[in-house]
Automatic annotation (TrEMBL):
Residues 13-200 form the Outer membrane protein beta-barrel domain. This is Outer membrane protein beta-barrel domain-containing protein. Pfam families: OMP_b-brl. Residues 1-24 form the signal peptide. The keyword Signal applies. The keyword Signal applies. The lineage of its organism: Bacteria, Pseudomonadati, Pseudomonadota, Gammaproteobacteria, Cellvibrionales. Keywords: Signal.
C-alpha cells in the first residue's frame, strides 16, 4: 500500500492533536506551598516570605489561605494573614479561568511608635488564567481590583496585574516564578517571586 507525503503529514497532525488531547490534565486546587518575593514599595526594598495552601471543596469552588512576613527594614516589618475563596471554570482542554475573592490583613511591628501596630486591610477581586503551555509547564495571567484601608494611608482602590510560569518537576511537585505590579493609592508596588508547591 502506497502512502503519499500528504497522507503521512495528515496522519502526523491527527496524531499530534490526539496526543495533546490525551495529555491535557486537570488543574489541581488542593495544595500546600511556600515562597519568597523581592518587593519594591515606591522605591523601598522589602522581602516577603509566606506559607499557605488551598483546598478544593469540589470542582467548582476552593478555599485558600496563607501566613507571611514582610520585612521592610530592620525597624519595620508586617505580619500578614490572607484568606480567600475561588471558582475555577474550564475554558478549554488546556485552560482554566479562576474567579477569586481574597481578604488580607497586615499588622506592623516597628521600633518607631508612629508605625507600630498599624493595620492594613485589603479586599481583592481577581481573574486568573491557568494554561498548559506544554505538558509540564503552566502559564498564568492575572488581573484584579483591590480596595485597601490602612491606618497610616487612608482608603484607596487600585489595580493589580501579574504573570507567572510554573514548571512541574513531577506531577505533584512544581516550582514557579511570578511578577506582579499593584497601583493602589500613591504607593506602586512591584514584586518578583519564586515558590514551590506540593499538590494533591
Amino acid at each position: 500500500m502506497n502512502i503519499s507525503k500528504k497522507q503521512l503529514l495528515g496522519l502526523g497532525l491527527v496524531a499530534a492533536i490526539a496526543s495533546v488531547q490525551a495529555n491535557a490534565k486537570e488543574f489541581s486546587y488542593t495544595y500546600v506551598e511556600g515562597g519568597f518575593s523581592d518587593v519594591d514599595i515606591d522605591n523601598t526594598d522589602a522581602d516577603y516570605i509566606y506559607g499557605g495552601g488551598s483546598l478544593a471543596l469540589d470542582r467548582n469552588i476552593f478555599v485558600r489561605g496563607s501566613l507571611g512576613n514582610l520585612d521592610v527594614n530592620k525597624n519595620l516589618e508586617f505580619d500578614t494573614v490572607s484568606i480567600g475563596v475561588g471558582h475555577p471554570m474550564k475554558m478549554s482542554e488546556r485552560s482554566d479561568l479562576v474567579l477569586a475573592l481574597d481578604y488580607s490583613f497586615a499588622e506592623s511591628d516597628s521600633k518607631n511608635p508612629a508605625w507600630d501596630n498599624a493595620d492594613i486591610d485589603t479586599l481583592t477581586g481577581s481573574v486568573t488564567s491557568r494554561t498548559w503551555l506544554t505538558n509540564n509547564v503552566e502559564g498564568n495571567l492575572m488581573g484584579g481590583l483591590a480596595h485597601q484601608d490602612a491606618d497610616f494611608g487612608g482608603t484607596d482602590t487600585g489595580a493589580i496585574l501579574g504573570a507567572g510560569v510554573r514548571v512541574y518537576v513531577v506531577p505533584q511537585f512544581s516550582l514557579a516564578a511570578n511578577i506582579s505590579r499593584s497601583f493602589i493609592g500613591d504607593l506602586d508596588t512591584d514584586e518578583i517571586g519564586v515558590s514551590a508547591r506540593l499538590q494533591f
